Amino acid sequence: MYQVRVEADFAAAHFLKDYHGKCENLHGHNYKVYAHVQGEQLDEGGMLLDFTEIKKTLRDTCALLDHKNLNDFDYFMQNPSAERIATFIAEKILEQLPELKDKSKTHLYAVDVFETDTSRARYIL
Question: What's the pTM value of the predicted model, to 2 decimals?
Answer without folding.
Answer: 0.94
